[in-house]
Structures are given as C-alpha cells and as structure tokens.
C-alpha cells in the first residue's frame, strides 16, 4: 500500500493523464486498459477474470467494503490518499472512493457470442455510455444471452458505462461487429445460425412487441438504434421483423435504454411463458 505524496508519478498517468480512448490502445497491438470504479463493479470484473494492474483509492475506504476487493487482487500496487487529493487527481468525485486499472481481454468472435444462444441484442450506433450501461443491465436481467455492438457504439468498458451497468458488462458476453455494412455480413451469419432479426422502430406497419409469432421463434436478435434517429432505414428493411412499442398520451418514443428493457422483457419470453402470464 503506497500513500500518494506526488501527484505526478508515472504510475498514476493512467488515472490522470490518459483519456479512456487512449487507455483502449495502451498496450497496442495487445488489448489495452480500462478503469473500473467502485468496489461492486471491481469485484464483478475480478469474478469475470479481468486482470487488475493497480488500485487508486481513498484511504478511509480500506477498512470498508473495499477491503473485500483488496483480498482478491493479489500483489499489485495500492495507491491511497485522502478524498480531497483523489478528487484533485481524477477530476471527479469517486464512487465509494475506489478505482482499479484493469487489462482488457481479446474481443471474442461473433460466432462464439451467438452459438447456441436463444436471445441476443444488437446495438447500432448507441453513442451514450450511460445508455450502453443501462442496456447491458437490462439485457443481463431480462433474458438476453449476448450483445453485439457496431463500432460507433460507446465502449461498454468506459468507466461510466461500467458503473451504470452495475458491473453487468462483465456478466453478459459481448463483442463488436465489422466496421462497414455490418448487417450485410452479420445478418447472413445470424441467418445461418437460425436467428430471426427484430428491428425496434416506430413504424405503423409493425408487429406488436408481444406478438405470439415472435415469441414462438426459437432464436431472436433484437436490434436497437442510435439515440434520436433510431435504426438506419437499410437496417430496418433488412430485418425479418419490425416491432413497435405502442406509445400513449402523445409521447412519440422512449429513450433507447428504456425501450430495450420493454423489448427484452417481452421478447425474452417463449410461447410457453406467454401462456402462463
């Protein structure tokens, strides 16, 4: 355990001087780093097999829940300071006074994410880390078996996405899709694997989200689009189904994270589940 007296030591540059996009390429061409915040999120990352590099934490948290983390991280540097110093270092108030720099894992293949799964989600250009984190939390809680993201999506391992997800980004498998024309390649692969694709879009000629025909499908891939504009027209046209969540009281749409929770809850069911509701 190392008490911080110099804010500019090289060992702290990953916490102070590096933006999250820079951490992504920290060990290039090897996978880079990410920063996990709060004991609960760090514990879930450790349980998922992510390797800790170092910890930066508030001194008074050592005897609290952070102590459970310290028992599991092995022989790594633990940098401690008063909260006022940490706020000065990081530029923000720490959630429960603890950050952990961790190594990323290599990205799995789309095939490994989807093989043998019943329900997956696909995120198209969802750029807000808060929304990505919230979608992961809903996906993990409401029956999705994996998540695929286009390259325009916010990184699920960004600090805010991890925190909003409550660490579920480490519990549900995910990977990125190809950068260009993702549906042309991935749609064909999903079709070969027995999936039907469901575009969540505000269209009048759509299926209801609880339509028995959807629930009867053995495998579904639920496709959600970017904040504001939603899914690309080409994506909607290429999907097997278009599904709309009905709106009331003049509301035109839901936030993508809220819409994901509704879609996952309904489309995560089977026909047998629906009969018992």
Automatic annotation (TrEMBL):
Stored CDD domains: SpoU-like_rRNA-MTase
GO annotation (BP), single: methylation
Top-level taxon in the UniProt lineage: Bacteria
Domain tRNA/rRNA methyltransferase SpoU type intervals: 120-264
Pfam families: SpoU_methylase
GO molecular function: methyltransferase activity
Keyword vocabulary terms for this entry: Methyltransferase, Transferase
Stored InterPro entries: Alpha/beta_knot_MTases, Ribosomal_eL30-like_sf, rRNA_Methyltransferase, SpoU_MeTrfase, tRNA_m1G_MTases_N
Protein name: RNA methyltransferase
Species per Swiss-Prot/TrEMBL record: Roseburia lenta
